[in-house]
Amino acid sequence: MAKSRMRKIGAHTLVLALIVLVAGCDFLGGSDEFAESNGYLPIKLDQQWGFIDSNGRIAVPPQYDQVQPFSDGFAAVQVGADWGYIDKTGSMVIAPQFRTAGEFHYGLAPVRGVNFGDLYGFINTSGEFTIAAAYDLALPFSEGLAAVRSNGQWGYVNTRGEVVIEPTFSDAQSFSEEFAAVEARDGWVYINKSGAVVINPSFAINSALPFSEGRAAFSTNSGWGFLDRSGTPVISPQYDEASSFSDGRAAVRDGSWGYINPRGDVVIEPQFRSAGSFKEGLAPVRFNDNWTYIDVKTGRIAINDTYAHAGKFVNGVARIDDGGDNPRIGYIDKKGVYVWYPTR
């Protein structure tokens, strides 16, 4: 079967995708549906956004134009056109003053001011710039380093704002499992935190995903496969699309979507129109136009209800919605019982 070639995936592409996913709002983040460390869930009620806890109780009353997940105890919230930050009590601790606001990690968040030509820098939890606004783009910190772009080239800074990997790459991703994928002159390679190239195969990598569970998905002209940490293609390029490993499974598309294990064995046969990653033993999958959830051990349907859209489980709760341009958003537990009935 001829394999399709996916469009190049890189840091700036992922950032733009995230912005689109949050309905045009300028936000830089890396979480799934909501913050794993906090358990607060974004909700929409009467066209205003707030948060509930994992038991479905309102923790921060809906009052914002947009919100983003909590990270390091803070959440970016939008008031009018500008973004600020609240803490877990709902107090506005950093006033809305940014056009772009990212997640806090290591006590720092990437932000951009509201004026034309403003650059990206990093603020601390008091709202003070501790890394000067000097970058075209910036991603949140991951494993102690943040990818930043200067004059069209990507490099990395540490939490003190020191450039530890010079901006020499045309694209870059955040560090994961000690390695980061970067786009060099002849294609994608992986570097370590010293900036040394640790994976540079003899073949050209067209697209690369971060390492997860010791494997990294990559694509060549032959399709998608997986590398191990030595750079060996332990699963040869053969799939139309592939996602990262999670819960010992990776979703791959060979016509339809199915799942493989780290050895490349098919453990759930290709049969889905779309498939998400396993998390906490369950994965969202789409049959025709509807989504439901399957079990990681058996591959069987675990929740009988179907949804227009369905997200990963985090802390025993998953976000679902009923579709459309202004969907009702709700949350379910692993039995399919609503923690928060869908509202908008």
Please state the CA-atom Rg, rounded to the nearest Å: 20 Å
Q: In percent, how much strand structure appears in the residues?
A: over 45%
Number of separate helices:
1
**How many structurally independent domains?**
3
**Oligomeric category:** single chain
- The computed structural class is mainly beta
Describe the structure.
- This protein is mainly beta and 344 residues long.
- It has 3 domains: 1-175, no CATH class; 190-242, no CATH class; 246-344, Lipocalin, CATH 2.40.128.
- It contains 1 helix and 36 strands.
- It has one helix at residues 11-21; strands spanning 27-28, 41-45, 48-52, 58-64, 66-67, 74-79, 82-87, 92-98, 100-102, 109-112, 120-123, 129-135, 137-138, 145-150, 153-158, 163-169, 171-172, 180-184, 187-191, 197-199, 207-208, 216-220, 223-227, 233-239, 241-242, 250-254, 256-260, 266-272, 274-275, 282-287, 290-295, 301-307, 309-314, 317-321, 329-332, 338-343.
- A 5-stranded mixed beta sheet has the order 1-9-10-11-12.
- Mean pLDDT is 91; it is low at 1-25 and 30-37.
Please outline what is shown here:
The protein is mainly beta and 344 residues long.
List the SSEs and their pairings.
Layout lengths: L10 H11 L5 E2 L12 E5 L2 E5 L5 E7 L1 E2 L6 E6 L2 E6 L4 E7 L1 E3 L6 E4 L7 E4 L5 E7 L1 E2 L6 E6 L2 E6 L4 E7 L1 E2 L7 E5 L2 E5 L5 E3 L7 E2 L7 E5 L2 E5 L5 E7 L1 E2 L7 E5 L1 E5 L5 E7 L1 E2 L6 E6 L2 E6 L5 E7 L1 E6 L2 E5 L7 E4 L5 E6 L1
Parallel strand pairs: 1-9
Antiparallel strand pairs: 2-3, 3-4, 5-6, 6-7, 7-8, 9-10, 10-11, 11-12, 13-14, 14-15, 15-16, 17-18, 18-19, 19-20, 21-22, 22-23, 23-24, 25-26, 26-27, 27-28, 29-30, 30-31, 31-32, 33-34, 34-35, 35-36
